[in-house]
């Protein structure tokens, strides 16, 4: 069972994993260096532990101890107990969901293992907003997609904000990073997937027709600002567009993903 440790000093060195959570660059450096990530909220903390990630520690207000008692009973990691005001002083924001956990990252699996048995996958190129990445994972999981592949420069799906927005979908959805950006889509084609790029290209066809009759499909999504690179747009097997009202040419990438996943799931 986790050891409960009451904390009264915000400068306690044992709280290092939880400091400065609003500083994105600092957190990215710290979490990469130490091989950790943070989960926020009772549901997300529970899903992380159930997903096989080992806790380094927990931080929570007393009122959350009973609700997470079963999770705390599965580990000997320390649980730092403090008031919500003190937690805000440590983390830099109001932890309104009351509970945080620091967990060990796992080695990323191979592309082949992630794709094994999959019929529908999402492929993300250079999506840099953590909120969008989390929302995409959540839509994919909700609409039956089997896996997610990320280009090397895509935002970290294990960043706290991404996990929170995705409600922990990253813990149940197989995912990994693509080691080869240039030939990523031809490689997917060699695995038997039809790659369908979401784009405003002149030869793009409505998403319904682009995925019709396709067995194994990979929906390809580009960055928030410029969309897909020319290389990925041209190397995709098909190019698709979501038809919409005249005068509106596109949706936010997370919203577009939800629409495209829904259509693809009904193919």
Polypeptide structure, described:
It is a single chain. The protein has 267 residues and is α/β, with parallel strands linked by helices. It has two domains: 3-104, 60s Ribosomal Protein L30, Chain: A (2-Layer Sandwich), CATH 3.30.1330.30; 111-265, 3-Layer(aba) Sandwich (Alpha/beta knot). The protein has eleven helices and twelve strands. It has helices at residues 24-34, 42-50, 69-72, 84-91, 111-115, 130-142, 160-165, 184-190, 207-211, 230-235, 253-265; strands at residues 3-6, 36-40, 55-60, 78-81, 99-104, 120-124, 147-150, 175-177, 194-198, 205-206, 217-221, 238-241. The strands form two sheets. A seven-stranded parallel β-sheet has the order 8-7-6-11-9-12-10. It has a five-stranded mixed β-sheet with strand order 1-4-3-5-2. Strand 7, helix 7 and strand 8 (175-177) form a beta-alpha-beta unit. Helix 6 (130-142) packs parallel to helix 11. It starts with a strand and ends with a helix.
